[in-house]
Amino acid sequence: MITAIALATEGGLVALALLIASWWGHNPWGTLSWAPEALEVNLRALGLGALAALPLFLGLLLLDCFPVLFFRTLKDSVEREVVPLFEHATIGEFALISVAAGFGEELFFRGLLQAGLAEELAGPYHLILAVGIASVVFGVCHWLNFAYAFLATLIGVYLGVLLIMTNNLLAPIAAHAVYDFLALCYLVAWKRRYRAARRS
To answer: What average pLDDT does this structure show over 84-89?
Structure first.
């Protein structure tokens, strides 16, 4: 059930991004080339994106093991409200949900919103403003509580900078997808097995 909802949501986000893009006149695929000669560049971007997910996952592990300040609230909220949604999902479903989230959300927030604003805004700080605005919107759209939205905003900045550094949307797509997959495996599957082992 959660897999179908996630796929429908992310598919809707792709459709919304393309609809806004047609009205705005900005191509959210602008940093991508599907020409055969771009294959190596795209593969490199995917690899860099996958590697870029590792610091995000390490941050998750640290916050989960050592929840300080308002991140205690974040940990409690995730375990109470997010983890149960995915309790019966399989590893394959985690992968499908993660790829869909990486693709849909990065197309919308980085490919459309950030890149579009970077083109529209003037001045020496247009890139900073574009990353900032797109990241705050990303955080607000992930509102579970303030801590969750704040963390999502920081992740949005990280992914936005990754797009600027690589100039390839596949990098943040891969980073987002790999991070979500690792996070789901750790928070749901690994902890589920750990709790079961402790009970037995």
So the answer is: 88
Q: How long is the chain? A: 200
Enclosing H/E stretch for 89: none
Residue 195 — pLDDT band, cuts 50, 70, 90?
Answer: low
Q: Are 181 and 103 in contact (CB under 8 A)?
A: no
Cβ neighbourhood burial of 109 (10 Å; 0-12, 13-18, 19+): buried
Q: What angle do the packed helices 146-166 and 126-141 form, to 10 degrees?
A: 140
Q: Are 22 and 29 in contact (CB under 8 A)?
A: no
Report the predicted TM-score, pTM, of the whole model to 2 decimal places.
0.93
Q: Burial level of 75, CB count in 10 A (0-12/13-18/19+)?
A: middle
Q: How many domains does the chain have?
A: 1
Domain that holds residue 26: 2-199
Query: What distance, in Å, lies between the first and last C-alpha atoms of the chain?
Result: 29
- Alpha-carbon distance of 157 to 137, in angstroms, equals 11
For residue 144, which phi and psi values (nearest 5 degrees)?
-120, -40
> What stretches of 66-169 show up as alpha helix (H) in DSSP?
71-77, 91-106, 115-120, 126-141, 146-166
